[in-house]
Amino acid sequence: MAKPATRRLLGGAAAVVVIALLGWGVYQAFRPVHDPVQGQIEAQEVNVSSKVPGRVGQVHVQLGQAVKRGDLLFELDSPEVRAKVAQAAAARDAAGAANQKAQAGARPQELVAARANWERAQSGAKLARVTFQRVQAMYAEGVIARQKRDEAEAQARSADELATAARAQYDLARQGARPEDKLAAAAQVRQVAGVVAETDAALAETRIMAPAAGEVTKVAIQAGELAPQGFPVITLVDLADVWAVVAVREDEFQPYAKDTLHQASIPALNVKAQFKVTLVSALPAFATWRAARPGGTDLRTFEVRLRPTAPVPGLRPGMTVVFER
Fold this sequence. Notes:
Elements: H1 4-30, E1 37-48, E2 54-59, E3 66-67, E4 72-77, H2 79-104, H3 108-140, H4 146-175, H5 179-204, E5 207-209, E6 214-219, E7 226-227, E8 234-249, E9 261-266, E10 271-282, E11 288-289, E12 299-308, E13 320-323
Antiparallel strand pairs: 1-8, 1-13, 2-4, 2-7, 3-6, 4-5, 6-8, 8-12, 9-10, 9-13, 10-12, 11-12
Helix pairs in contact: 2-5, 3-4
């Protein structure tokens, strides 16, 4: 038989154990429980479109295909663009020919013809002057009438004027185009060159290249369909630029301050990874949590973006990511 003192000691110890267990149970029942924060993986997307409208001639990629920057994605068939290119090329040739003509001046044959006209006019003027002198002498002697003398004088003056005009034509042929005409012709060439560059750029826009590396996740238009200007024909996703997005209530936001590090599990890959908070922004006003007690304040929800601190093989947009608290 145990002594009474021993029995009292054992009973007290048992009571302490029971009280401790009851306290632990109450604590576990009423302590705050923090559920894991669940988010989703997102990635940078690029919508590829054309600056010119046209009919899709050929699509060179397929869904799920990985492309590099500069790879040909699709081509447009645009007769209107080809016609503008041909018009611009013809205008360029015409402007170039006009400019060459203005800069070169008259041809040698034109110079020879102008000089011959001037010399012929000079000879005619000289003959007209001699004839007038003879008629004048005869008029002074009273041999012919004044009318004949006046006609001879008019013919001499007309011949001199014709010789002067022929000399001016010869001088113009020697000098070539005026400086203003040369400048205008050169400016026309530059203007047409701009038009040619514009049409060449439009033609280049019918061959659409990948602006960045990525994976083809959407092909909105197939060959033979019309593609409006600026319509996203192909969507690329950059799997090297991924992040996790979680929504955190305002009263639970403190652990997710910018630049903080967090461990997360990715169920689809059955791996854990470390993420770093890179962006925090408040969601629109309708995304709020009402206070549970009367007289409290609304609790806003924040969008938190976290990027993996190291590449995670196989990580793709849409995967679930779970952050433990």
